[in-house]
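To assess whether ligand presence alters the predicted conformation, the chain was also submitted together with nicotinamide-adenine-dinucleotide. Input:
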Amino acid sequence: MGKLDGRVVIVTGAARGQGEQEARLFAAEGARVVVADVLDEQGETLAKELGALYVHLDVGEEGDWRSAVTAAKDAYGHVDGLVNNAGILRFNALVDTPLDEFMQVVRVNQVGCFLGVRTVAPELEDGGTIVNTASYTGVTGMAAVGAYAATKHAVLGLTRVAALELAPRRIRVNAVCPGAIDTAMSNPALLDPSADREETSRALDELYRKLVPLGRIGRPEEVARLALFLTSGDSSYITGQPFVIDGGWLAGVSIV
Ligand code: NAD
C-alpha cells in the first residue's frame, strides 16, 4: 500500500529540483502525478519515466492553470492534491531592486501560489490537500533577497487564510519552509552539464558546515518527504501551518 494510492496530485515546478523529487516520491507512493512546469523537455521526460501526465504551466498565467486542471481531470477524473512548488530567486539589495525584478518574483512565487489555490481548490475532492512552498526566508529576514523573502512571507499568509476557508471541506493547506537545499536555486553549478554533481554538493556541504547545526546543505529528497507527509493521511489533523526544514539553522544563535 502506498501512502497516496489513488490520489491525483499536481506538482508545479516539477521538472527539476524539489518538485522533481516530490513527483518521483509521490508516484512511488501510488499517486497519479501531474508534472507541471515551463521546462517542457525536462518535464515531459520525467513524466514519461514516471508514467505521469506533463502539462505546460506557467504559474503566473490564469489560462495555463485552467488548462492544467482540465487536462488533469480529463486524464484522471479528479484532483486530490496540489503542491505549489514553482519558484524563482533573485539577489539584490532592496534599494537596488528594479520594480520589474520585484514584480517578476511576485508573479511567480506569490501570484503563482494564489492562482494555484484559487483555481485548484474548487476542483479538489473534499479531504484534499494543498502544500505551498515558502522558505525559511518566509519566517525570518535575509539580506539581499528582499523580493524573494517578501513573497515567501506572503505565501504563509495565503496558506493560513486558505486553511481557514477550506477547512469546512476538510481540505488541508500547509506550507514547507526549506532552508538551503541542494538544487539549481542554491547550487547553480547543477545547471552546468560538465560540472561534477557530487563535487559541487561536497563544496556546498563545506560552506554550510559552519552555518547550519546539522552541518550540511539539505537534499531535495528530504523536502519531498515532508511534502509527502503533508499530502498524505499521516498529517490528517494538521492544517494552516508552516514547517521549517533547515537542518536547525533557525533554531537559534550559537556562540560555540
Ligand atoms: P529549482 O530552480 O531547481 O526549481 C524551480 C522549478 O520551478 C524549476 O523547475 C522551474 O522551471 C520552475 N519554475 C520557475 N518559474 C516557473 C513558472 N513561472 N511556472 C512554472 N514553473 C516555474 O529550485 P528548487 O529549490 O527546486 O525550488 C523549488 C521551490 O523551493 C521554490 O519555490 C523555491 O523558492 C523553494 N525554496 C528553495 C530553496 C533552495 O535552497 N533550493 C530554499 C527555500 C525554498
